[in-house]
Amino acid sequence: MLEDLTTAASSPTAWPAAYPQGYAVVDVETTGLARDDRIISAAVYRLDTHGEVEDHWYTMVNPERDPGPVWIHGLTSEVLEGAPLFQDIAEEFATRLEGRVLVAHNAVFDWQMIAREYARAEREAPVRQRLCTIALSKELGLPLPNHKLESLAAHFGVVQQRAHHALDDARVLAEAFRPSLRAAAAGGVRLPLHECRPLTEWADRPAPRIGQQSGGYGSYQPSSWRPSRKRPACPYPNPGRYEEGKPLKQGMRIAFSGDTSVERELLEDRAVEAGLHVATSLSRLTSLLVTNDPDSGTSKVVKARQYGTPVVDEAAFGQLLRDVEPADG
């Protein structure tokens, strides 16, 4: 079916009139995943109505704080020290986005990071709609083993050269988006477009400045501005344990142990928003334990060893959160 759609899309057939007039395929690398983290590099591929590349742009950004997980993005404090601040590249970035649909893999994350940076700079990002390529691949029914960018790229035969480098990730996504867009056009598929509402103000809490050490994704002191509250029950059944190499699935029971770089409550919020069940204790039903110290003697770590519960660190969990599989049914 998909092959038929792709073949049809390559022929000079009528293009859906309701489709956008242009796209900005974006990837940003960041100091972490929390709401106070910063962009450290950004790339944009501008595409025309039919998904053809018009140009591309890349920049590093000095986050004015610790760069976070260098082992993931490779950008050290020394490299970023001489990079421009976000307010210095905000205008150029805006020209790349203006009048276009923002396209990204897990687009809500990229959009939120961009919106916050513009709010810090007391500006407004010129984006009104976004399109997530994960959502589009689901609309097309692509036979992907998971929702990772590398899987989408492999499906379309796109070769990735530097994973977690903003320019290469944006290139890979642009090359995979074009056949996806054409398949959607040929099949009359409605694009999964979502409204973007820019922030109008922003206030950061203190964070480590560039050159200082942190625990990975940015160490923040607990704050009192988030009221404690009881979270609603997870609406999805527990699908079982996490298996290495596979995505998390909505309904999985996640437990945390020990200190985390991202404020624990923020990390738990992200898990809940993704459809996971945050457990306060560990049992045989726990799907995954997240800890940065798997050799500690905490009760949760000890029980995880006894029960054979899978264990990952915070950085790995952060990556898994970007590709949570929907619950069955």
From TrEMBL:
A GO molecular function term, named singly, is:
exonuclease activity
State the residue spans of region: Disordered.
205-246
Q: Where is the Exonuclease domain?
A: 22-186
Keyword Membrane in the entry? The reply is no
- Alphabetized Pfam families for the sequence: BRCT, RNase_T
Which keywords does UniProt give here? Exonuclease, Hydrolase, Nuclease
Q: InterPro entries per the record?
A: BRCT_dom, BRCT_dom_sf, DnaQ, Ribonucl_H, RNaseH-like_sf, RNaseH_sf
Occurrences of domain BRCT (ranges): 246-324
Task: Identify the NCBIfam families for this entry.
Answer: dnaq (TIGR00573), PRK06063.1 (NF004719)
Its protein name is DEDDh family exonuclease
Organism equals Streptomyces coacervatus
